[in-house]
Amino acid sequence: MSESAAQPPPYYERHIFFCLNERDTSHGDDCCADHGAPEMYAYCKRRVKAEGLAGPGKVRVNKAGCFSRCAGAPVAVVYPEGVWYTYLDSQDIDEIIESHLKAGQRVERLLLPPQTGRWP
User: Is the whole model's pTM more than 0.85, yes or no?
Assistant: First the structure.
């Protein structure tokens, strides 16, 4: 196939992945599940569907395992842009939906610092 041939549009315009990992925190590690990630994943999925953003050519809300960025828990990432977020509540998720998933604008205040890894 030549490089000038048009690429078909992606099946989904964007994916948002939520880390839902649960880990034994007896050693001091945080995990996203302990910070409300399962509830925020479910909330985001409902809101994206209610807003008519779900489906082919639109947005897909996905579960994910550990991203090894536990120090920023809870963590979500939007692709294809590769924008990493941390969040506290449904208001933060609403802002990600409105600004990023709908309008393609990053939510600067919720960006996960690039150096954030598994441990502080």
Answer: yes
